[in-house]
User: Fold this.
Amino acid sequence: MLVNKLFETAIIGGGVAGTSLLFTLARYTDLKDIIIFEKYEEVSLLNSNPKANSQTLHVGDIETNYTYEKAKRVKKASSMVSNFIHHFGGVGEIGFVRDKMVIAVGSDEIEKLKRRYELFKTLYPYLELWDEAKLKQIEPKLMEGRKEPVLAMGATGQITTVDFKKLSERFVQEAIDTEKNIQIRYNEEVTRIVRLEDGTYEITTDTTRFNARSVVVNAGAYSLLFAQSMGYGLDYAILPIGGSFFFTKEKLLNAKVYTMQHPKLPFAAIHADPDCTQEWCTRFGPTAFALPKLERYHSLHLRDFISALNLDKDVTSVYMDLLKDKTIRNYILRNAVEELPWLGRELFVKDAQKIIPTLRAEEIGFAEGYGGMRPQVIDKKQQKLLLGETRIADSGAIFNMTPSPGASSSLSIAYQDALALCAYLGAAFDEEKHLSEIQNREQGAGSK
Ligand SMILES: Cc1cc2nc3c(=O)[nH]c(=O)nc-3n(C[C@H](O)[C@H](O)[C@H](O)COP(=O)(O)OP(=O)(O)OC[C@H]3O[C@@H](n4cnc5c(N)ncnc54)[C@H](O)[C@@H]3O)c2cc1C
Assistant:
């Protein structure tokens, strides 16, 4: 077995999280030797693939499952992605400017949306309320056959859709263009990470052994398994939640259309998205259901799955808590049935009719090959399902678990990790350059 030179940082995982860190380290730090491992043949074949996720740049303006505080955080984090897209000329190729809105159906939801608008317009001054007449004009399908009153809160002129795989590819290209020593190891699966006595890390792959002074694991659910193999994150477990989609046969909408969140449900309500991989045809979803897998459309590694579940009485109590609520129980059951052929479509169309009332089951089909896995983290100590990203960091080792909105927040997480690595390694971070290219521009600014 070959032993390679000492790298300053090793990154495990070539999704949008790993590649955004590669870019950030290469462009804004004086670190020279960086290596990234991806077990498949290209970047972003799993959750960061446009077929796996909803392609939404989550900004927090139309996501009614976010509190004001969370929306503020996500706004700041995701602005780095839109800034990157503008700065590096990716508008129309990586990120797409399209209309977006959240619709409130029925008087209760309308009242809630009006209150939300009053609160959130300070954070998002560009938000507008669109009444039925306006909706009829811009999205007639939303209004056809609708019996209940509806109101929308929406925006125009923003980057709403991002192909996170293309974004990852651009991150890699920009990193390579810095002419630093960047090694990219595709088709190379990391099997073990060990901290040696001298404080460096030994990274073993299926063919070789590498050494690095620091290591960042951005490997989805596997990040937690690596952390636990090194004695970290033992209080966490993973609840793998699958998400599937349905396609309409024709393009029915121009805008991303979100629905109001049911306050009891942990996962985002379904939405309709114009899909950038299918000539902007309308895609509905995602569903949310527990699936015995860590990677969608890849074979199950039972041992890894059991380790990730980390089942004990604390984890079981989180499951029981979720299941004892009737709304959540029905939601879980309904989402599971929606996976079944034929019956699934008949049931799903009822949810989708909240967006397009005249939609019929024959007009939609299960999006075969689409969908991904959310590695939701359970905090065993607090007996709580954590939503959003979880990070473990110690002694130059960082492990990120990044369910939604992880792709939108990728550059922000990378920034945080890069600062931590620079402090640990005694390296410099070019804050001024990062500020001017990544942190400063507001959504809606023109591209360079
Ligand atoms: C249904 C669904 C909808 C979503 N919609 C959105 C959305 O609209 N907007 C948004 O911002 N987020 C969304 N998300 C979340 C988003 O997809 C993730 O936050 C993001 O893709 C995570 O990126 P990542 O790089 O951490 O993980 P991944 O993209 O899964 O990448 C992990 C990489 O690590 C590699 N890897 C794993 N183990 C090893 C190993 N041992 N050695 C080498 N490589 C390894 C894998 O092959 C993979 O390429 C959605 C997720 C789902 C499931």
Remarks:
- The domain at 3-439 is CATH 3.50.50.60 (FAD/NAD(P)-binding domain).
- The chain has one domain: 3-439.
- Confidence is low (pLDDT under 50) at residues 443-448.
- The chain has 13 helices and 22 strands.
